[in-house]
From TrEMBL:
UniProt-recorded name of the protein: ParA family protein
Residue span, CobQ/CobB/MinD/ParA nucleotide binding domain: 4-166
Origin: domain of life: Bacteria
Transmembrane segments: none
One Pfam family per UniProt: CbiA
Length: 242
């Protein structure tokens, strides 16, 4: 089981969006058994499933039109201090686990969750506030990476643009992080409008869903590129697929 934590100490930078895009595609289209753990006190992902998705599931169930399974991946709310206790219980049930964590990095529970992951994905932005928050957070991850290497543990981290717009500031951010030796994924998400309508039921690789949210043809390509690069960089090999 590969554990992927999506984190940044700057709020509103696209953590939940990135998780829903990746979890939906990897489970529905790539065949991985996926669990999403919502450990963020804001409970964004749990709220999306309960408020946005569950009512439509119940309507379809009553109408007899529900296609099972209703959701492509499991989603659980777990407190920060209980994350790995829960994952120990289900370690044989899933291939990939995504963990959504609070937007802070100054407490022991957060550092413990980050240190226990195989991969940390850091959504990055181009504003001064986003840049400063991301850089300081990646410095923390560099230290966790150093300690993990000393202990022979599997740990990687990558920056990823979750709302890229080709601004000059983003190119400056890329050059700056590259100069610091901070790794980043080359693939990114660009279609801001369609990703704002979060759902835990559908994959953006589903043509009907893309049409429903007004996504153009380029969305399939960028989501697939992001999934393919994550599979390669995180070593989610074909042997993991059920």
């Amino acid at each position: 089981m590969k554990i992927i934590c999506v984190a940044n100490q700057k709020g509103g930078i696209g953590k939940s969006t990135l998780i829903t895009v990746l979890a939906g595609a990897l489970s529905a289209d790539y065949g991985y058994r996926v669990l999403v753990v919502d450990a963020d006190s804001q409970q964004t992902l749990a709220g999306v499933r309960l408020t946005n998705d569950q009512p439509s599931v119940e309507q379809e169930r009553l109408a007899g039109t529900l296609a099972e399974p209703a959701f492509p991946y499991a989603l659980e709310s777990v407190g920060m201090g209980q994350v790995y206790d829960r994952l120990d219980e289900v370690s044989d049930d899933y291939d990939v686990v995504f963990i959504d964590v609070p937007g802070r990095s100054d407490d022991t529970a957060m550092i413990d969750v980050l240190s226990g992951a195989n991969v940390v994905l850091v959504p990055v932005g181009a504003s001064d506030a986003e840049r400063l928050a991301t850089i300081s957070f990646m410095q923390l991850l560099q230290e966790i990476s150093r300690l993990s290497r000393e202990q022979g543990l599997d740990f990687q981290f990558f920056g990823v643009h979750s709302h890229r717009t080709n601004l000059k500031e983003e190119k400056d951010m890329d050059e700056f992080t590259d100069a610091l030796g901070l790794p980043r994924l080359l693939a990114s998400l660009r279609q801001l409008g369609c990703y704002k309508r979060l759902s835990t039921r559908y994959s953006y690789l589903n043509p009907a869903y893309r049409r429903a949210v007004g996504a153009d043809a380029s969305v399939e390509a960028e989501v697939r590129a992001l999934c393919d690069e994550l599979i390669a960089r995180a070593q989610l090999t074909s042997e993991l697929v059920a």
